[in-house]
# Entry
Amino acid sequence: MSATRTGEPATPTDPDPHRWWGLVVIALAQMMVVLDSTIVNIALPSAQRDLGMSDGSRQWVITAYTLAFGGLLLLGGRIADLAGRKRTFVIGLAGFAAASALGGAATTPGMLFGARALQGVFAAVLAPSAMSLLSTTFTVPGERAKAFGIYGALAAGGSATGLIVGGVLTEYLDWRWCLYVNVPVAVAAVFGALALLRDRPGHGGAHLDIPGVLLGCGGLTALVYGFAEAEPRGWTDPLVLALFAAAVLLLAAFVAWQKRAPGPLLPLHVVSDRTRAGCFLAIMLAVVGMFGLYLFMTYYFQVVLGYSPVRTGLAFLPMTAAIVTGSTQISARLLPHLPPRLLMVPGMLLACGGMLLLTRLTVHSAYATEILPALLLMGFGMGLTYMPVFSTATAGIAPRDSGVVSATVNTSQQVGGSIGTALLNTVATTSSASYVTAHLAAPAERGGIVREGIVHGYTVALWPAAGITLLAGLVAGLMVTAKAPKHGARAETLVPEPAT
# Structure
């Protein structure tokens, strides 16, 4: 194989004069997709009461979205490459708005589950289109760093922002507005995209890799579904084991097929590059720890400290501010001059330190002195990590593959979130139950002991979360070997041509 230029230009001859307004449109869309991973969580109790959902089925409000989103991302990324990123971006926005309106108007649990699955389908088209548009619009390292700094801040801080917005809408309006709020945002983004975004035509003559779609999307769906079911059912449940076995078989067959497919869904040179593979693995491991922290601290604030939904969201606000600062004011300024791992490794060390501080939580921990410093460390750490991961993973890739690379980054996050939620929640609940059993001496003490047990479970689970975050830093240090981009130079689009 030899490194050759692709037959198409890496960028237009002149920078797009509307590129910064285009970034606003892309940022709006990305924020909407990320918000929907958490905004409905706080609304879930109200929706359950309103629609008469059972405890066993309520998880599908969350699972239907993550399953469709995570399972179809690779397909969405390749469709963006074939049909054109701007076109799929607009279609994704319109479909997401329609699915959100349907969910907000739901009169039965099944209607809501179906709407959430549709949201996931269109998010799988929208998210990779957004990142690949960003990648192909901003190619000068200084500008690229600023653009990806904003994108990274939204990706890392959007989940916490979703908790705030979800709390406000649920408490002061109605749970349905957690879905309706997407409609005006999406409509504004559609008009902005049509007016401001530029994109080269897609590769309409190429054929979609149907066997790759079935094997790859089937394997990812089985994997995400397996982790989702591991949380309520347990890791040794026959269904969970069957899903994991199916995922392994399907993904192994997918890799084997991609080696000989004439037009592969995921060209293997995309993931065989050491730096790019390191970015994918590092972000997956980092998200495991981050989702664990969001999960535990949301419940800690509401169940243990008795915070309202709005106050819970506001408690995360300093961490969101730290993420934005780390991404836009530190990473974006330093990345054009430093190798990406010199930001990612310290970022993961800071995030790990924040989690270790939280292992000292008690039922009476003070927010200002014991919780806030840990959230700030976590926020700065994730801000230093997300932005260089996104920028480096998508740098130097052929425009024809930018959609599928963006989809692979998003897939890494989805898989990491699924692992983090299932694995760390299992550790926490098991540890809590053992603590309560060992310490409960009299029924009169039950309330206090249960609260202590909940906190004990969280602190035990935060140890492996910190360890996985540290492992993400190690992966970044060893695998992400890219040098600092030269300030002011355009990113090259040199890719190894597949062997023929």
